[in-house]
Backbone:
């Protein structure tokens, strides 16, 4: 997915981003989030309204843009992060992307090696999922950079629905400083006990857990979306963090606990759809919801499979991103 081949560069002269032709943007900053991923900020030097065409996409659901690797003439899709509540000058009117450096990945490797001020060609937007307008509740299962679509959803709904995000990452550094809203964090006394029982290495890992460190940029953005959502009763955003290296995984029980708790009387009074959105690496989506399927040259949902197909999720629809 996300791979296209190109034969001509003749279309790269436009001055505003659009879905049909590639437009050159400048890499203005690259902020490391962890040892494997960074937030890239791209701006157009000549045209301050070069991303005007993205305005509508922010309201519609999940969408991506494509970046071209010029030597290989291949492109990959990336999911823009919503604008910050308090953007710096470089971030105003710019496109921000969370990009993970894949081992031997062609396009992600190329981007991580680029010097600042390099020109990069972008095109889009491409709508991946349009939110139905009667949605009232979302459970978002995100793996790794699958958090970017979750941020787009929280931005698009702008406090019109209740959203709970379960975010699974490989390492604590990916979600540094994040503390869960509904999962129980390890107790301080328990951590002290582990130190004696399990030695220094385990103690260091425990210290790195929930909320003990300065928040990284993605956790900060989730936090500010949460603060904003608190203003509208019944539409709160909550986030739980699951970290592979700490042995905490999203479980079928944690999903059921959430879907069943939402049957409480106060939330059933308003009519509307309840959605489970699954977003992340192929293995993550397959595990939870089964593989997507190619139909007529396009990637389609395919039947619901995986763990979610075996849970009793009455009233909830599932969508694979
Ligand atoms: C709609 C959409 C949105 C996306 N949004 C984001 C986003 O916001 N952030 C993000 O980081 N990613 C995102 N992605 C993923 C992104 O598009 C790329 O797939 C990703 O960056 C890897 O591309 P690459 O060219 O670097 O790696 P590739 O060169 O495609 O390689 C991918 C992996 O396959 C392995 N590989 C390659 N060739 C072989 C081979 N012959 N044999 C065995 N292994 C091989 C590589 O080692 C690497 O681990 C999105 C994808 C889609 C479809």
Residues:
């Amino acid at each position: 997915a996300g791979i296209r081949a190109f034969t001509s560069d003749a279309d790269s002269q436009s001055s505003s981003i659009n879905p049909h032709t590639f437009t050159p943007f400048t890499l203005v900053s690259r902020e490391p989030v962890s040892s494997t991923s960074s937030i890239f900020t791209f701006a157009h030097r000549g045209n301050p309204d070069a991303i005007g065409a993205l305005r509508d996409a922010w309201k519609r659901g999940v969408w991506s843009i494509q970046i071209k690797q010029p030597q290989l003439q291949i492109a990959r899709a990336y999911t823009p992060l919503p604008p910050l509540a308090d953007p710096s000058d470089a971030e105003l009117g710019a496109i921000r992307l969370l990009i993970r450096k894949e081992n031997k990945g062609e396009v992600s490797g190329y981007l991580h090696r680029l010097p600042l001020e390099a020109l990069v060609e972008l095109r889009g937007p491409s709508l991946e999922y349009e939110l139905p307008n009667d949605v009232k509740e979302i459970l978002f299962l995100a793996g790794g950079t699958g958090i970017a679509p979750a941020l787009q959803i929280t931005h698009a709904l702008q406090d019109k629905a209740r959203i709970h995000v379960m975010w699974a990452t490989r390492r604590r550094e990916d979600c540094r400083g994040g503390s869960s809203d509904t999962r129980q964090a390890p107790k301080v006394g328990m951590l002290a006990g582990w130190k004696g029982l399990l030695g220094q290495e385990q103690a260091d890992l425990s210290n790195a857990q929930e909320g003990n460190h300065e928040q990284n940029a993605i956790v900060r953005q989730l936090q500010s979306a949460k603060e904003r959502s608190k203003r509208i009763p019944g539409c709160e955003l909550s986030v739980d963090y699951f970290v592979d290296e700490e042995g905490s995984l999203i479980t079928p029980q944690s999903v059921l606990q959430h879907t069943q708790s939402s049957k409480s009387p106060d939330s059933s009074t308003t009519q509307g759809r309840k959605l489970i959105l699954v977003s992340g690496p192929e293995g993550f989506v397959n595990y939870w919801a089964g593989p997507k399927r190619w139909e007529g040259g396009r990637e389609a949902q395919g039947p619901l499979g995986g763990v979610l197909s075996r849970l009793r999720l009455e009233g909830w629809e599932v969508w694979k991103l």
